[in-house]
Amino acid sequence: MQTPPVVTRQEWDKARQELLAQEKELTRARDAMAARRRRMPWLAVTKPYEFDGPAGATSLAGLFEGRRQLIVYRAFFEPGVFGWPGHACRGCSMIADQVAHLAHLNERDTTLAFASRAPQADITALKHRMGWTMPWYTITGDFDADFGVDEWHGTNAFIRDGDQVFRTYFIDARGDEAMGGTWDYLDITALGRQEEWEDSPSGYPQTPPYTWWNWHDSYDAAPPAQGWVDKLAAAGAATGPATPAGAAASTETTGGNGGCAACG
Question: Cβ(111)–Cβ(133) under 8 Å?
Fold first, then answer.
């Protein structure tokens, strides 16, 4: 294996700063792409789609669980898939292993669900075996064929306006590699992260960054403590909107990566 050269600390810092400039360009490009997603036209879903869930039959609107946005990942777990019935597709299983705690998405009025053609009894057994907790439904109609996920995995994003459901975005292939984290999921939705620094159309719901964050077991119990909010707001003001929390792994070291400098 031909490895890079070994250098001094000063040379390493210089190389890292040069790469950091490109990292920030990538961060801003990702932010711009997410802003373009929020301006994608919506496609009305007029055909009824049926699913089977733990509580019985439900519709696509039922998958929202009362929230405004829905993300559906088509996982391959069914007869004919390698690993059946003990395991789902290996790649789909890796995606499932990556999924962050859903309380954070739910706090942004967004539901994540998985869907396969396996019966509910097999899905329940699989989730128990693998330690997965996301809602997982059985496709009983044409959803997979109509939304481009009958032969390959993919992630569809939807929004609900009253009883009307709209398709807002779709990714598949290597696009699914990035899925699993709260920020990556929110960045493909019509409303985005819903924070004030984002470039979103007029009237979109937005709150100050950081202030809605909470422990995953505390969203229903109490709002974040004001001292925490004040510290994070100060850290965010110091780093500025060019490096929003969660936008990239590489930012300044003074609170830019999630405001962690304020945690001490």
Answer: no
Do residues 181 and 230 both lie within one domain?
Answer: no
Query: CB-based contacts of 42: which residues, under 8 Å, 6+ apart?
Result: 159, 166, 167, 168, 190
Q: Is the peptide bond before 85 cis (omega within 30 degrees of 0)?
A: yes
What band does 244 get if pLDDT is binned at 50, 70 and 90?
A: very low
H or E segment to which residue 205 belongs: none
Could you give the CA distance from residue 141 to residue 129 in angstroms, rounded to a whole number? 27
Considering the domain architecture, whether residues 81 and 163 belong to the same structural domain is answered as: yes
* pLDDT tens per residue across span 58-73: 999 999 999 999 999 9
Q: What pTM value is reported for the model?
A: 0.88
Per residue, the 3-state secondary structure of 32-62, as one string, reads HHHHHHCCCCCEEECCCCEEEECCEEEECHH
Residue 143 resides in a domain: yes
Q: Are residues 140 and 224 in the same domain?
A: no
